[in-house]
Amino acid sequence: IITTSFEWEDDYNAVHTILTLNLKGEILNKIYIDNACPGGEAFSGIAVGNFDSDSELEIVSKYKCNGIIIYNRDGTVVSGWPKETKGVLKGMFVTADINNDDLSELIVPTMTDVYDDLPDISFEESGGLYIFDSNGNLLNSFNNLNFESSTLAIANLDSDSELEIVGVENKIIHIFDQGNDKILATLPDIYHY
């Protein structure tokens, strides 16, 4: 079992920890996340995937406010990581083998800056969607999108050999086909803040 924990140090900073547990709830390993983003509400969680062809899955975590890092289970960083993106990570990132190379790719949604009031945080770039290969190389990006708290889905929607990525941005469902952005539908106004 892999989960996360965080404790507040002050109003803006939290210590983030990735915990690996056995089925009895015993802690097998702790990974302390360096350079975590101020504000625990911005923590995007974790994902797992196969990024190096060994028998163990690697752990994907947020790094700073706009970056991703991948750890081996023992806490060492996988070669080629961390990577930074434009925009802020607030939605959930996912892993999947979208190009049929038997290794995981990492799909990362980001949003436009929301941290104007926090110390030492400044982003002038808008959000987007980023697709990284297992080595941290950027395969594709879709810029000027705002994936605020969006969860992505991965599926083969057109019966070809590659998986598509589905995400909601500003109430519009986008389907990404690794090179083209197709807008499928507009959602009704269901958000009442």
User: What is the CA-based Rg, rounded?
Assistant: 17 Å
Strand order in space, largest sheet: 4-5-6-7
| Distance between the first and last residues' Cα | 34 Å
What's the β-strand tally? Answer: 15
Largest sheet: 4 strands, antiparallel
Kindly estimate the percentage of residues that lie in beta strands according to DSSP.
35-45%
Order of helices and strands: EEEEEEEEEEEEEEE
Mean pLDDT: 76
- Return residue spans where pLDDT drops below 50 for at least 5 consecutive residues: 118-123
Figure out the total of helices: 0
| Helix percentage | under 10%
- What is the overall silhouette? globular
| Class computed from helices, strands and strand pairing | mainly beta
Topology:
Blueprint: E1 2-8, E2 14-21, E3 27-32, E4 46-49, E5 58-63, E6 67-71, E7 83-84, E8 94-96, E9 105-109, E10 128-132, E11 138-143, E12 153-155, E13 164-169, E14 172-176, E15 181-186
Account of the 3D structure:
With 193 residues, the chain is mainly beta. Helix content is 0%, strand content 40%. A four-stranded antiparallel sheet has the order 4-5-6-7, with no helix packed on it. The chain has a four-stranded antiparallel sheet with strand order 8-9-10-11, with no helix packed on it. A hairpin with an 8-residue loop joins strand 4 (46-49) and strand 5. The N and C termini lie far apart (34 Å).
Task: Give a brief description.
The strands form four sheets. The chain has a four-stranded antiparallel β-sheet, with no helix packed on it. A four-stranded antiparallel β-sheet has the order 8-9-10-11, with no helix packed on it. Strands 12-13-14-15 form a four-stranded antiparallel β-sheet, with no helix packed on it.
